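3.2 Worked example (two chains)
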Amino acid sequence: MKTLFTLTLIVLLPASFMAKAEDDKAAQRQARRKAAEASPTGKATSDASVPVKTGLRLPSLFGDHMILQQNMKNTIWGWADPKEQITVTASWGASTSAQANADGGWKVLLDTPAFGTGHSLKITGSKTIEIKDVAIGEVWLCAGQSNMGWSTGNSAEAELEANVNLPNYRIFKSAREHWHEPLKEKRDLLGQWKPCNPESAAETSVVAYNFGKKLHLALNVPVGIIQEAYAGTPIEGWMPWEVQQDMAQSKEQKADMDRSAQRQLDGKGESREKSLAAFQSELADYNAKVAAGETMKNRARALQPPYITKPADLGNQYPANIFNGMIYPIRPYGIKGAIWYQGERNSKTAPQAVAYGEQLKRLISYYRSSWHELSGGNVAKDFPFFFTQLPSWEPPQTQPVEGVAATWSVNRESMRLVSMEMPHTGMAVGIDCGDPVALHPQNKKPIGIRHAYLALKEVYGKDIVPCGPRYLRQKIEGSKIVLEFDSIGSGMMAAKPSKLDAFAIAGADKQWHWADAEIAGNKVIVSSKEVPTPVAVRYAWAMNPSQRNLLYNKEGLPASPFRTDTWPLFDPNDPAVRVEKPEKTDEARDAKRNFKDWERPKMTQ
């Protein structure tokens, strides 16, 4: 197995992004208001999963600068005193009412017109809440683990956003939260909608930001993104247990966490009660700081609510816990669709990476069905869902096909098959992005734009090429294999002015050899003198194929790695080879500091 490198981070944040606005009185007033509404005493509740009943209030998703999905009955909800009558009135003339139930919860459906800005909402009950600067447009959920959360300010080309001013592009960034039961209301008191400016752009996910920005500029309508990202989290954490309890990989993840929790508790004087008590104390401290007008933990990081790491069954790796804290509280906010960037945590072994495909399908199906049901059928039951294929990582490819240690190749194939099998899904290919050392590469901007291409074509009907060449089928012709592709755009090409060199070919003996590959229209013809009777081809089958001469279309979009064989990707009787986060070394730190973005064909659309 190849040597693994360390993970280190370089901050490329311009000075203008780092400056804290000390005179931001409006943000402080809003923070104080939220804290007071959450708890009039400024202290944590006795049950952190249940909001305090303090009269009419709304989730943080409903506030100044918010955006609602156009041409839809949008769900608006909140809390009030039991049986309180609530009326929601919009500046565009729509109005609707509901009565709070015995627990104080209420929900209404509010019609929205076509896109526009300068609107307002008035929510009236025992008091009146006014929401200003409401936009109507397109709203997308952007969820996943740390590479979905990785900020624009810490990424390549951050300086290009230093003067951005797009007031009708709205951003909602959630703090990390998890819980062992579904949360009715987020604990984050600082989460709020923000118009796009240099500061909000810098703190936003670079993938989500560039996705939303491209949509906004291409569609010329207001666009909103809701960022829900949590570092180091497995897909098992992002959906309820009952949705996945019959899946072998999910059961294994749960069993592992249960064993870890027991080890953490045995003989160390620890208990769940002590962890929960410590959490409550930290939550009270957080609430008090926000109530006092504090917004920053330090110069660069905002205050965030606390979270539990031990025991493991209360932590962020446990099945359902991320869903409970990040997704449950925001459903069924009106959305057009979702983009997803997660999978590194589920690619430590080949068996885990193979299982990921079925898990991803299960997650997509549940998000769609539950959002549709909870929204009264107004969010589409098959809303578009696009996901990020894992980029390149580890040293560049030197073998025709890497084996069981190339677990990310297996995950990429799992995602590719999901994109083919599930309607209204798509995959943003990222093998020409990444880093040979860092798990958090800086060159994520192309991935965000590629997500936007998928949406612009598949959702909004724009006349563009949504992705790179897609493998369709193979035909064996003597000593050659002819591969057919669609999505070739203006034609296929190699990334560099030389022959394609990322294709491998094998005969019935399953021995892989580098192949000669030539483009012929919408086909690639593959052969090798070493394989007179070929049966299968693999393309870019490695952890890091980025430095090979890859296949693109002339719109500058890369082909996905693929295989034409159905041979087993691992032997279930062999011990699983694990790919772990690398150890830190001075050599790896130097490599990270000196990293320059890879050359790739320019995207032209």
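3.2.1 Second chain
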Amino acid sequence: MSLYINLRTVVVTILFYSSTLLTYITCTETNLQPNIVLIMADDLGIGDIGCYGNNTMRTPNIDNLAKDGVMLTHHIAAAPLCTPSRAAFMTGRYPIRSGMDNGYSVRVLVFTGSSGGLPENETTFAALLQKQGYATGIIGKWHLGVNCESRNDHCHHPLNHGFDFFYGTPLTNIHDCKPGEGSAILTNFQGRLRLINNTLMVGLLILFVMKWTGFTNLGWGIIVWLTVLCSLFFGAWYCVFGFMRVWNCLIMRNHDVVQQPSNGETLPTRMVEEALAFIERNQRKPFLLLMSFLHVHTPFFTTKAFIGKSKHGAYGDNVEEMDWHVGQIVNAIEKAGLANKTFIYFTSDHGGSLDSVGSNGEHDGGWNGIYRGKKGFAGWEGGIRVPGIFRWPGLLPSNEKIDVPTSLMDIYPTVVSLAGASLPQDRVIDGQDLMPLLKGDVQRSEHEFLFHYCGAALNAVRWHPKGSDTVWKAHFFTPKLEVGPCYRSEICGCHGQYVINHDPPLLFELSKDPSELNPLSPDTEPLFHEIQNQIQIGVEKHRKTLTSVPFQLAWNNVLWKPWLQPCCGTFPFCWCDKDSNVSITMRDPSQ
């Protein structure tokens, strides 16, 4: 009996301490999972922020993030356009791997009622964090598709890609969303349709006159049928583009359309309200919040408190309002006592939309600083060089600058690792975990090569040789910046009249010439041919990792399909406003 009691005591003791140890480990792992707040601006130029050199725009809240954390000065988007760049950001993979870019002139999603979008077999960082127990939310812009085959299948929707909560627009901010701005969707295509329509109308008018005056023997029946066909053509064209504000400018809360068309005047404030509410209700568990701003994409919706406050017109006002919104989110985290438990990241999806100076000395849009090019112009730094600011008090150093090549795709493995998850093993992940670099454990990222695509065509390569501080960049083709169709277009094509091909590739040393003004040659760079050879080896190795996938942005996927159109009523009567209450009080930004 005594032996039995002793054994029983030993077993109970072991079980007790094992349980205690398991509880300790579990709690420790939970405590090690930081909250993750990812803040992405839209079309923000890297030169628009104070900590990146701007001394005329007020961005104190973003600047404070850099002062309290780490700032990357060689941070690169995977594409100079919204849809492919965001796809790469969400998956950690070049957009060509998921089919989220192509070689056509349309390289972004332009309708909510189209069938293209982020494929269901792609695994976002949100999906991996969701499995780790994170509350996951995205507020603002999605721009990665909605439906595939029916109006409510939501195959591309954020809630089908790992997010528990979504509030915002499934598409983007476009000129159609602001009354009086006019349509900017497929403007060239619209122009051709308008020309065809006008030609048909003039032809019909001439035909009527000829019939009336006896110059033709065509019967009235044929003329009536031609009139009906022309009317159907005009009606179809007008339905697609004349109702763009209704079809594309809508707000969703999770799966439900709550406002159609959207009210852009109050939407930015409502988005901040949703972000603060998300933080409030999830502060007792680890959470992932992706704050995807509509700022500073045109048209500019700026509240009265910020209008006329900046030195750079409507664009500057919008930038400064966005900075204030960033401050609201950071303040909410600090007031909740979560600062030391929260990893914060700020960036833009790509470069500024315009970098020209108007006659009044103001920049008409995003300023890309010293970098050449802009949004939509593949390859040049101005379209892909973006801010990269990280803050995590106690774990990351403060007021630190790092100037080595990194990518938006690096956020994927970084946050997955922080959450204690594992990367997918059935696919290539192009991003690299940034934490060793951010903490100062290493002096360079794992990227030896970064590849830059224009649609499905590789147009430039960045090479950071191992053991060297030098960064080389070779362009296989470049957009025509000064004259031609690129000069007049927001988005430059990837072939033919839009580009200039280079053989041998145009070579720059970015570490000395970040503005890409002085191309090298065998006369100015003794290692010119060796550098080109090493880059070509890197390209061939990269190409072997690619597999063929369907183009999500092919014409048949981007065109509007009425049976896929999200609608808050009975299609086509899609008008509602179920979500117009705003409780946040805006203050004067000068106070």
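3.3 Remarks
The domain at 37-174+249-444+554-577 is CATH 3.40.720.10 (Alkaline Phosphatase, subunit A).
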